[in-house]
Design brief:
Layout: E1 12-14, H1 15-28, H2 33-42, E2 44-45, E3 56-58, H3 59-69
Antiparallel strand pairs: 1-3, 2-3
């Protein structure tokens, strides 16, 4: 997953951004979309009690999980 913003490389991207990239990642890694989306869900942090902001995805954790599948 790509998370580049300017000169800094953030460790989090939005859940929506991760889902947008899922088709590309699945194709590049020869994985099913369902498998990629399951890994996205596993790497997703949810706001406390469902409040306080959008869900975010830990890019480092997600990329590690994708590598483990290869």
């Amino acid at each position: 997953y790509q998370a580049y913003m300017g000169e800094q490389i953030p460790t989090q991207i939005s859940f929506d951004n991760a889902r947008i990239q899922a088709n590309r990642v699945a194709a590049e890694r020869d994985m099913s979309l369902d498998d990629v989306l399951a890994l996205v869900d596993d790497a997703t942090s949810r706001p406390l009690f469902g409040f306080g902001g959008p869900k975010s995805v830990n890019v480092v954790e997600l990329n590690d999980a994708l590598e483990a599948q290869s």
